[in-house]
Amino acid sequence: MPPDSEKTTLLKQLRIGSEERDEGGGARSRWWIVGAAVVVLAAVSGAAFVALGSQPAAVEVATAAAPASGTGNAAILQATGYVTARRQATVSAQITGTLTQVLIEEGEKVQAGQVLAKLDDTSQRASLAQAEAQLNAAEALVHQYEAQLAQAQSDLKRNEQLADVISQQDIENSRTQVKTITAQLDSQGRQVEVGRAAVRGAEVQLAYTTVKAPFSGVITAKAAQAGEIVSPMSAGGGFTRTGVGTIVDMDSLEIEVDVNEAYLHRVHPDQPAQALLDAYPDWNIPAHVIAIVPAADRSKATVKVRVAIDQKDPRILPDMGIRVSFLEQAADAAAHAPIKGALVPASAIVERNGKSVVFTVDKERAHAQPVTPGQSFGDLRLVDGVGSGARVVRAPPADMNDGARVSVKG
Fold first, then answer.
1. Span 364-374, pLDDT tens digits
2. Does 101 lie in the same domain as 77?
3. What are the C-alpha distances in Å from 326 to residues 129, 155, 255, 273, 320?
4. Distance, CA of 174 to CA of 180 (rounded, Å)
5. Which of 144, 178, 207 is the last residue before a domain boundary?
6. For residue 137, what are the CA distances in angstroms to 63, 130, 143, 195, 206?
7. Quick one: DSSP state of residue 391?
């Protein structure tokens, strides 16, 4: 066996080897931890990049519209506008008063002269009763003067027959009495007329407590409730209503569109047209031009055109958005064929991989749809490849690709 000194030396050598192994293993462990941290950081950064990159892009969309069908007419111009009512009224009381009844609701049809609301009429009825009493008193006084005149005339006639017996002065007094009572009777007759006028005025004031429909139509707004004060003019403070409700004559609905000045020469009165409601993009409504309003909008460089709706329909409502196609008689048989495709904003057509596409929106995704652009109609363009009613992105961003997530503005 080796001596003790040799054993000690061997043990030290063993310890040193063990420490070296510990130091080497610790270094390797530290490098492994650093490497794992780098990998995790890269993964987190990548996930954050993907998450940020997948945020939906906010876009504006438009509805592809069906072009005017070719029934011997060709669309030469399109313009947008709104359905308007030529005859509508916000009905109010003609006097200030408190509402006791409001007999209307939104959507209700009413006839001309129908009672819409009633005001408290206590004061008006009292005024009418007072006027009637004054008239009765005036008429009673007339009867009194008539009786006095009849007596005075009888006295004058008798005195004239007794001219040889009575003095001439008595006869003159009788004549004066007749003239006086005649004048009083005439004056009282005027008072009766005043009384009758007062009664008529009180009756009018009483009638003002009943609010009636000025024409037949549909109630589109109910502006007051029973218990509120209404007035023909604003009293300030926000506690006085100036209207009871709004009536619209649905038979007076028409369309108002803004036509760009550059295309105004294409429009003329009685020109045939077709209208498309934004709410019903597949429903063609026959129409015709009523008139071109002789005034231009300087800020928009447009002129307002009135268009009549040839077929009334309950689906057509005031203030609905609408697009009008102005038609021109086609010169050849080709115009009789239906126009294929749909009208979309020209800005919706972009180039992707050398092809014209539009991005249609389905739920939260935008899909690239190849199209064939056709004729332009102002700021709209006819394209083949998209159906009417499809929602397309206006002015898609340059980095938008098929399947991109989007959120619709507004």
1. 899 999 999 88
2. no
3. 63, 91, 13, 4, 19
4. 10
5. 207
6. 75, 11, 10, 9, 22
7. E
Number of domains present in the structure of the chain? 4
Rounded Cα distance between 175 and 171, Å, is 6
Domain co-membership, 107 together with 155? no
Task: Residue 355: give its domain's CATH number.
Answer: 2.40.420.20
How many other CB atoms are there within 10 angstroms of residue 382's CB atom?
Answer: 21
Contact 128, 206 (CB under 8 A): yes
**Beta-bridge mates of residue 62:** 392
Q: What is the number of other CB atoms lying within 10 angstroms of the CB of residue 341?
A: 21
Spatial separation of the C-alpha atoms in residues 239 and 254, rounded to whole Å: 35
CB 215, CB 87: distance < 8 Å: yes
Same domain as 243, residue 372: no
**Which CATH number is 98's domain given?**
2.40.50.100
Which tokens in the block code for residue 301? 């460089």
301-304 long-range Cβ contacts below 8 angstroms, 24+ apart: 301/260, 301/261, 301/262, 302/258, 302/259, 302/260, 302/261, 303/258, 303/259, 303/261, 303/264, 304/256, 304/257, 304/258, 304/259
Within-domain flag for 28: no
Q: Could you tell me how many residues make up the chain? A: 410
Domain that residue 238 falls in: 88-120+209-248
Q: Per the domain annotation, does 127 fall within a domain? A: yes
Show which of 207, 240, 273 is a domain's final residue. 207
pTM above 0.70, yes or no: no
pLDDT digit string, tens, across residues 66-99: 775 544 456 788 899 999 999 999 998 889 999 9
Nearest to 149 by CA among 183, 173, 119: 183
Helices (H), 97-253: 122-161, 168-207
List, run by run, the mean pLDDT of 10-residue segments along the chain (410 residues).
51 48 50 54 49 69 73 72 93 91 92 94 94 93 91 88 84 90 92 94 94 93 90 67 90 93 90 91 90 92 94 90 82 50 88 91 89 79 86 90 85
Q: Are 88 and 247 in contact (CB under 8 A)?
A: yes
Tokens, residue 374 = 């056709």
pLDDT in tens, 299-324: 989 999 999 999 888 899 999 999 99
* Dist CA 334 CA 140 (whole Å): 89
